[in-house]
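Tokens as discussed.
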């Protein structure tokens, strides 16, 4: 966390999509590829963040660390130890170390503003969003198939606040992100394999 906390980023110089791209570049040499989420949440000051895909919990930890400053909340959905076939036919495994729980790297000191929900996002995401209402940031890092990605984007979009951000990992695995953004005429960019879309008012 120390390296991220020392990053200087002048928010006034960037629109939100460019800001995320700049944060990704600033953190590109980190041993944690999700460190950019700390920078984004630190400067966007969201109150409510939803993510799918937790695994070890590195992304969750970075988001929660940034939310300490705003007393914001993170809601995470994870289907642990999943194996699935990618759209290109390759088998993908997201397996945890034996005996480990999703999010095991998240420190106890950061868990107060965190709700972890175990299950399939197709079953849990709609009810979660209905219960919490509008959100500021959505971060997808669960199953990277066209079907699941499209479902999550479409489900979240009505709940995303104006100027809210939809972030998605590994968007090069399918065309789901581009197709979604084009359907909704969203301001978007793909940078280093990460999709960034802004919901315009």
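Sequence:
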């Amino acid at each position: 966390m120390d390296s991220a906390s020392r990053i200087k980023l002048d928010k006034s110089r960037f629109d939100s999509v460019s800001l995320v791209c700049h944060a990704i570049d600033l953190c590109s040499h980190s041993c944690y590829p999700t460190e950019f989420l700390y920078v984004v949440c630190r400067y966007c000051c969201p109150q409510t963040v939803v993510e799918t895909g937790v695994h070890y919990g590195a992304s969750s930890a970075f988001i929660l660390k940034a939310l300490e400053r705003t007393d914001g909340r993170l809601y995470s959905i994870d289907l642990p130890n999943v194996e699935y076939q990618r759209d290109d036919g390759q088998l993908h495994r997201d397996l945890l170390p034996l005996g480990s729980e999703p999010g095991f790297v998240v420190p106890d000191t950061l868990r107060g503003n965190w709700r972890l929900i175990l299950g399939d996002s197709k079953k849990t995401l709609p009810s979660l969003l209905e219960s919490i209402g509008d959100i500021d940031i959505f971060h997808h890092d669960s199953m990277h198939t066209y079907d699941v990605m499209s479902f999550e984007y479409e489900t979240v979009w009505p709940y995303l606040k104006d100027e809210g951000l939809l972030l998605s990992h590994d968007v090069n695995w399918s065309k789901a992100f581009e197709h979604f953004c084009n359907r909704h005429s969203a301001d978007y960019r793909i940078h280093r394999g990460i999709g960034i879309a802004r919901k315009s008012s």
